[in-house]
Q: What sequence folds into this?
């Protein structure tokens, strides 16, 4: 038994050596191939794009998925056209990552009652939730909640602060 | 009249200061303005022996009576025990229609024997006599009970000085649900959190408070036993859970949930079982409140466009609109006798406290502040506490239901919001 396994190791070492030498041969031929592809339109059939396990488009600070806030007009509870692409990007991500869940947190400015504003914040969160569900996202992946006027991002009693707080945030769980 | 008012205010602040200085953890400062339509002139003589107690009991009684707005305190330097003979004619000539006397004596077991008597100088007769065996830490409560007795014997209406209030403070990153006496003294912390706490609501027996906590990163309803600290999770459905209000028998809560879409009113048992949907619209229905007899639920709804107040049978059915003036009426609260609806109305950009007499439809504005919220009736129905703004910070205010007497309670640091007045307790 022992002599046989020693033989197997020697054999695989030989295969590895053969592989190394063939790589060297390819390297020498590379400039020729490169010249041949110059000027050809379309995808480079030899292009290599890296996939890192553990990397997620969600974590790309430059990507559209980094946009997690949807702003609303005064006394308005519908998702504006300019946030369509953000909602669609999150819908696409959630549809291809069925294990991911989000909470949509609705917010209001500080004018008016605590509980009524909580209900208005819910209306904003619900508008985003409905838009996602219409784009095929499963109900089980989305929860719409409201913070009302209780967790303002901007403090102050002017239009700048108010408009910053008329917002729904997408929070991944 | 103006001068009298000012003097009363100064007197009230002075006696508060004197009374509370020794154990001062006072976080709320009280300011009073206005007086009742009629004021009963009363003299409170110093109780012999009260100087040996940690708190001056008559100072607390005087502060309570002054704050009510319905008494005029007759200045005196007399010390009269409950066994003294009262010279009615003399007190009548000094302007006092009534006089309270009493005594305080430390007992061998550390308690204080507190005795008090109330006399009618006009009819030359005794109106009341009470005695208490009081633990030193309950002297403030005994003082409030004496003030309650004086108020009730002279006005015919139960006093609310021994009742408590709950409210939420926000300082730095900390939110606290606090319980204090109705005058803002004797503060105790029921809940501390780094996330918001809103909509506290006292159980009818005064032993528990229902509230909404954001500690789970979403609004969830809890009931907390104030004595045992036991917390019961009453509603944690998908979406937001808010606006708890107790049924008069304490067995159920009306709540606002979003489990089926937008905010709607539901009824749930106080232990979190037996959920039943009460309202059924595609818009917002929230802020439910039971009528005192439990038969109706008042609530805020946007079914007609802007928010208005509606009522519905507690078993369901068709809702009826209650408010018609103004385009934004929220936070309905029903008086203990069921006859007055208090609410917040937005008119010309100001959010102010209004009262609607349900018997004749007459509406009255009760506040002159502009960012009012969360009204709450005193259990005797004579005062309404609400949250307002004081120099960009949250403060509490109290107004009599005729709008004449106003008090403001401000914290030295941070915001104070979401007041709720507790019930009468045995």
A:
């Amino acid at each position: 038994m022992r002599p046989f396994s020693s033989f197997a190791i020697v054999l695989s070492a030989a295969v590895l050596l053969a592989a190394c030498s063939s790589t060297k041969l390819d390297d020498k031929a590379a400039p020729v191939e490169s010249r041949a592809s110059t000027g050809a339109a379309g995808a480079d059939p030899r292009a290599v794009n890296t996939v890192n396990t553990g990397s997620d488009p969600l974590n790309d600070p430059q990507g559209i998925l980094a946009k997690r806030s949807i702003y609303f007009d005064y006394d308005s509870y519908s998702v504006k056209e300019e946030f369509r692409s953000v909602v669609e990007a999150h819908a696409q991500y959630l549809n291809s990552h069925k294990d991911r869940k989000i909470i949509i947190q609705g917010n209001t400015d500080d004018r008016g009652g605590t509980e009524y504003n909580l209900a208005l914040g819910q209306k904003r969160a619900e508008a985003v939730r409905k838009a996602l569900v219409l784009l095929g996202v499963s109900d089980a992946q989305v929860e719409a909640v409201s913070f009302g006027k209780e967790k303002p991002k901007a403090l102050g009693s002017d239009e700048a602060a108010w408009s910053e707080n008329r917002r729904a945030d997408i929070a991944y769980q | 009249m103006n001068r009298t008012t000012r003097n009363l205010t100064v007197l009230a602040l002075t006696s508060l200061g004197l009374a509370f200085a020794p154990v001062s953890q006072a976080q709320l400062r009280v300011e009073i303005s206005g007086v009742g339509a009629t004021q009963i002139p009363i003299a409170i003589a110093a109780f012999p022996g009260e100087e040996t107690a940690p708190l001056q009991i008559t100072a607390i009684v005087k502060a309570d009576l002054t704050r009510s707005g319905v008494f005029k305190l007759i200045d005196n330097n007399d010390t009269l025990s409950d066994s003294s003979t009262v010279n009615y004619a003399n007190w009548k000539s000094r302007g006092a229609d009534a006089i309270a006397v009493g005594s305080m004596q430390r007992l061998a077991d550390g308690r204080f024997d507190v005795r008090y008597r109330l006399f009618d100088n006009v009819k030359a007769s005794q109106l009341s006599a009470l005695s208490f065996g009081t633990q030193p830490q309950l002297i403030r409560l005994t003082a409030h009970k004496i003030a309650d007795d004086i108020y009730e014997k002279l006005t015919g209406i139960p006093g609310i000085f021994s009742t408590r209030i709950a409210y939420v403070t926000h300082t730095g990153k900390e939110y606290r649900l606090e319980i204090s006496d109705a005058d803002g003294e004797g503060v105790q912390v029921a809940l501390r959190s780094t996330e918001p706490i809103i909509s506290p609501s006292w159980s009818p027996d005064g032993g528990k408070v229902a509230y909404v906590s954001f500690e789970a990163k979403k609004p969830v309803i809890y009931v907390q036993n104030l004595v045992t600290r036991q917390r019961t999770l009453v509603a944690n459905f998908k979406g937001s859970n808010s606006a708890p209000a107790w049924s008069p028998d304490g067995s159920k809560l009306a709540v606002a949930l979003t489990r089926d879409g937008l905010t709607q009113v539901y009824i749930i048992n106080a232990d979190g079982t037996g959920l039943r949907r009460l309202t059924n619209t595609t818009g917002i229905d929230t802020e439910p409140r039971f009528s005192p007899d439990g038969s109706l639920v008042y609530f805020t709804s946007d079914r007609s466009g802007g928010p208005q107040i509606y009522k519905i049978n507690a078993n369901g059915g068709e809702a009826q609109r209650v408010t018609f003036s103004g385009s934004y009426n929220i936070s309905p609260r029903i008086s203990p006798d069921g006859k007055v609806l208090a609410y917040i109305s937005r008119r010309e950009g100001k959010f102010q406290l209004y009262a609607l007499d349900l018997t004749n439809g007459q509406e009255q504005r009760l506040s002159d502040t502009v960012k009012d919220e969360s009204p709450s009736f005193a259990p005797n129905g004579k005062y309404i506490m609400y949250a307002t703004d004081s120099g960009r910070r949250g403060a509490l205010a109290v107004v009599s239901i005729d709008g004449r007497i106003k008090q403001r309670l401000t914290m030295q640091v941070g915001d104070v919001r979401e007041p709720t007045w507790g019930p009468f307790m045995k």
In short: The radius of gyration of chain B is 23 Å.
